[in-house]
Automatic annotation (TrEMBL):
Aminotransferase class V domain: residues covered: 4-351
Protein's UniProt name: Phosphoserine aminotransferase
Annotated metabolic or biological route of this protein: Amino-acid biosynthesis; L-serine biosynthesis; L-serine from 3-phospho-D-glycerate: step 2/3; Cofactor biosynthesis; pyridoxine 5'-phosphate biosynthesis; pyridoxine 5'-phosphate from D-erythrose 4-phosphate: step 3/5
Cofactor(s) annotated in UniProt: pyridoxal 5'-phosphate
The protein's role, per its UniProt record: Catalyzes the reversible conversion of 3-phosphohydroxypyruvate to phosphoserine and of 3-hydroxy-2-oxo-4-phosphonooxybutanoate to phosphohydroxythreonine.
InterPro entries: Aminotrans_V_dom, Aminotrans_V_PyrdxlP_BS, Pser_aminoTfrase, PyrdxlP-dep_Trfase, PyrdxlP-dep_Trfase_major, PyrdxlP-dep_Trfase_small
EC supergroup of this enzyme: transferase
Enzyme Commission no: 2.6.1.52
A GO biological-process term: L-serine biosynthetic process
Binding site for L-glutamate: 42
Stated family: Belongs to the class-V pyridoxal-phosphate-dependent aminotransferase family. SerC subfamily.
Cofactor binding note of this UniProt entry: Binds 1 pyridoxal phosphate per subunit.
Main location: cytoplasm
Annotated source species: Halothiobacillus neapolitanus (strain ATCC 23641 / DSM 15147 / CIP 104769 / NCIMB 8539 / c2) (Thiobacillus neapolitanus)
Length: 363
């Protein structure tokens, strides 16, 4: 049974050496006689695994000491609610500025509206989310409680090439599909959050990196599981955390550190993405990526074929060639190649060779 190249958007491919280590430790992790899945989250072994994972993530992302790293559940979708619940009263007038640049921004906005007044300060829906606002077009309310945006929209494949300047207003970023793909200056953000299942590890784990001054402002009506302070005060072990996902994430962090960290990932990711965009752009119109050049994502690359009648044969033949999960999101159709950190360059090369061959035969 051969492994395929999995271009799924998440849950997504994991590094093979991480999977091999997990397999080797499945029945007996480090002389404990048990799998990490079976350990108490409060036992010595798991606490060491958890602390090491946090230390490694702090090192990888150069996270300043005045930020807590929380290992949560509920996915990025739970953060859509936790953010307004925790930040509404932290500062400002209790409203929030949101950038609407895609499907996930829309979801974040809809959820925030349950809790506070949302001002949509930029909306690229009229472009079908193929454009992003220019930095100097953004005008924020200086009294807002926070500004929220989605640096990389996973479905449209649109990624900001800059960090919005929100002044003193805390900037909150849904980095689900771009975290760890390159270095980022954490100090520019109030909160960075991400579901793990794309660039970190298995689903079930959500990471939130929260600046200290934004913790402790949840109202009395906020349930304990939605209060950052409860999780921070309890080292993300207020309840049973997603231990196995936390462990796998730790293996991924170790591997990234051993392979040159995020600066190295940036170079590899840029090269991988540029290769694939070049293959699309040089296909004589057989393939097309609809996103504006300055908004092209390194992580999620959607493309359409010149005739959508070719979609089915493309996907079927790709599957046979060991290139899996290339169908675009059900809301947009077409194709999408998600090429997170764990997608080897050989996977990009194989996809490009297949695309070229398919275009020759169907052109
Ligand atoms: N935000 C972004 C940018 C995403 O890509 C996704 C998942 N595809 C989500 C949020 C939702 O994440 P979850 O399923 O972890 O709630």
């Amino acid at each position: 049974m051969a492994r395929v190249f999995n271009f799924g958007a998440g849950p997504a491919t994991l590094p093979e050496d991480v999977l091999i280590q997990a397999r080797d430790e499945m029945l007996d992790c480090d002389g404990t006689g048990m799998s990490v899945m079976e350990m108490s989250h409060r036992g010595k072994k798991f606490v060491a695994i958890a602390e090491q994972a946090e230390a490694d993530l702090r090192q990888l992302m150069s996270i300043p000491d005045n930020y807590k790293v929380l290992f949560l559940q509920g996915g990025a979708s739970a953060q859509f609610a936790m953010i307004p619940m925790n930040l509404k009263a932290a500062r400002g007038d209790g409203s929030a500025d949101y950038l609407n640049t895609g499907h996930w921004s829309e979801k974040a906005i809809a959820e925030a509206k349950r809790f506070l007044n949302v001002n949509v300060v930029a909306d690229t829906k009229p472009s079908k989310y193929t454009l992003l606002p220019a930095a100097d077009e953004l005008k924020f309310n200086p009294n807002a409680s926070y500004v929220h945006y989605t640096p990389n929209e996973t479905i449209a494949g649109a990624e900001f090439g800059y960090i919005p300047e929100s002044g003193d207003v805390p900037l909150v970023a849904d980095m689900s599909s771009t975290i760890l793909s390159r270095p980022v200056d954490v100090s520019k953000f109030g909160i960075i959050y991400a579901g793990a299942q794309k660039n970190i590890g298995p689903s079930g784990l959500t990471i939130a990196i929260v600046r200290d001054d934004l913790i402790g402002h949840a109202g009395a009506d906020v349930p304990a599981m939605f209060d950052y302070k409860i999780h921070a005060d309890n080292g993300s072990m207020y309840n049973t955390p997603p231990t196995y996902a936390w462990y796998i994430a730790g293996l991924v962090f170790k591997r990234l550190l051993a392979n040159g960290g995020l600066e190295q990932m940036k170079q590899i990711n840029e090269r991988k993405a540029n290769k694939l965009y070049a293959a699309i752009d040089q296909s004589g119109g057989f393939y097309r990526n609809p996103v504006a050049l300055n908004a092209r994502s390194w992580m999620n690359i959607p493309f359409i074929l010149k005739d959508d009648a070719l979609d089915k044969p493309f996907l079927a033949e790709a599957d046979k060639a060991g290139l899996s999960a290339l169908a675009g999101h059900r809301s947009v159709g077409g194709m999408r190649a998600s090429i997170y950190n764990a997608m080897p360059e050989a996977g990009i090369d194989a996809l490009i060779a297949f695309m070229h061959d398919f275009a020759q035969r169907h052109g």
